[in-house]
Design a protein that fits this description.
7-stranded mixed beta sheet, alpha/beta
Length: about 220
């Protein structure tokens, strides 16, 4: 059994990537654009819009590097708990400042890993309209560039055989944007600096999502 206090391992995330590749390419038809924009090495944060449950697994299976995701603690139930820990994913309590999750996430960046974050904190419209400050904190504190990622098509409803999933073998677009720094270069982590970084991040993520929709021909609802 995986130690609940153990740090996530790169090997676990690599296993999770392999599982994600098998499942996502087996069930759907991902079209991946711009994966070369993800730095090949070193710390990086992948900031993903979140409108459907498969968005995380889809990124795990299409990103060019293994990803450690911050996932709500409610998902870590029953056999999923040791499984998610085993594949290098991070449990976070969204109702409080989860210092243990913060420490593990920063540890991923310090070790040169890829950290996956849903900036909106929970599933919504997937339009980056409401961002939490956590992403700015990790980016500024960890000194890691942010790569915006748009997952489009996961909310398609026509032709579904399983209500909780997009239509099997349907196309889901995963679009990676240009990496950028959230901070202003000063290294400041004051509330004002983080608020400014959050606004900077929101602008970059929203612009990427709009560009991804134009590039793929996706309407705003998918």
């Amino acid at each position: 059994m995986t130690d609940a206090t153990a740090a996530p391992t790169p090997r676990g995330a690599a296993v999770g990537r392999g599982i994600g590749i098998g499942l996502m390419y087996g069930l759907f038809r991902p079209r991946v654009l711009g994966a070369w924009r993800v730095p090949a090495a070193g710390p990086v944060i992948l900031a993903v819009n979140h409108a459907h449950n498969i968005d995380g697994p889809m990124l795990m299976g299409t990103a060019p590097r293994p990803v450690h995701f911050l996932i709500k603690k409610e998902a870590f139930v029953g056999p999923l708990d040791p499984f998610l820990r085993g594949i290098g994913q991070l449990k976070v309590d969204r109702t409080t400042v989860d210092r243990a999750a913060v420490t593990r996430a920063l540890g991923v960046l310090e070790d040169g890993g890829a950290l996956g974050i849903f900036p909106e904190g929970t599933r919504g419209e997937g339009d980056f309209a409401s961002l939490r400050a956590g992403l700015a904190y990790f980016a500024v504190r960890g000194g890691a560039p942010i790569v915006p990622v748009a997952v489009l098509g996961s909310t398609e409803r026509r032709g579904r055989l399983i209500p909780a999933l997009p239509p099997l073998r349907s196309r889901v677009d995963v679009v990676f944007g240009d990496a950028f720094q959230a901070g202003d270069g000063s290294g400041r982590r004051t509330r004002k600096a983080l608020d400014e970084a959050t606004l900077r991040i929101q602008g970059a993520l929203t612009a990427h999502l709009e560009n991804a929709r134009r590039l793929t021909g996706r309407p705003a609802t998918t």
